[in-house]
Amino acid sequence: MIDIVVFSNGHWFVQKAIYYGEGNQLLGCNFAQEINCTDYNIFDAFRKVLPTSLKEVTKRFYKSDKTVVVATFTLAHFEGEWKFGTCLKSEPYKEGDAEMPHLENEMRKLAIEEAARAVKDVKEMNGWLRIEALDVTKLTFLRPDGHSGPYMFPNPFANGIKEGVPNDCVHWCMPGPIDTWNTILLELMKKWKDE
């Protein structure tokens, strides 16, 4: 039986996409200029998908002792031109070293707002499903050193250094950031258990 569900999303919305709504109605496209359809940006898509997902969960489980955690948007730290950029920072940022990008900040706000709205919905239904936001955006912003970088494939330099080695600046696999998220989530779970 599943007691906790973690919604961790966001980067899938920064992809080429065609969005359909109820009844297969075309809502619009994102990053698809070659298709003649209305621009449906990632904020519009996220505003549609996250509330829909949370409404479905609250409708089904509002009178359960389950927990839903909405993790906020993480940063990619990609620098440079597409296909030739990197994410080679080797140390965390210090406060004030960089400014939070608009996209990530807005996606963070949307996730927190939707989690709060879902909490309100559960209360209005006299339910007790726990819904919490796990705000990891600033933590990830300060850790540009936590990405896998050129190591998205094993041994990228085994045959020498090639020009344009692909860099994975989205996923997190270096010690630190993910361990911190897991520690925070574990501490929150302990706190919830004691309430």
Notes on the structure:
The chain has 195 residues and is an alpha/beta fold. It has one domain. 34% of the residues lie in helices and 16% in strands. It has four helices and seven strands. The chain has helices at residues 42-61, 102-124, 137-141, 177-194; strands spanning 4-8, 17-20, 26-30, 67-71, 130-134, 147-149, 168-172. The strands form three sheets. The protein has a three-stranded parallel beta sheet with strand order 1-4-5, sandwiched between helices. It has a two-stranded antiparallel sheet with strand order 2-3. A two-stranded antiparallel sheet has the order 6-7. α1 packs parallel to α2. It is globular and about 60 Å long. The chain starts with a strand and ends with a helix. 21% of the residues are buried. The mean pLDDT is 85.
Attribute tags:
alpha/beta; two-stranded antiparallel sheet; 4 helices; 7 strands; 16% strand; globular; TBL
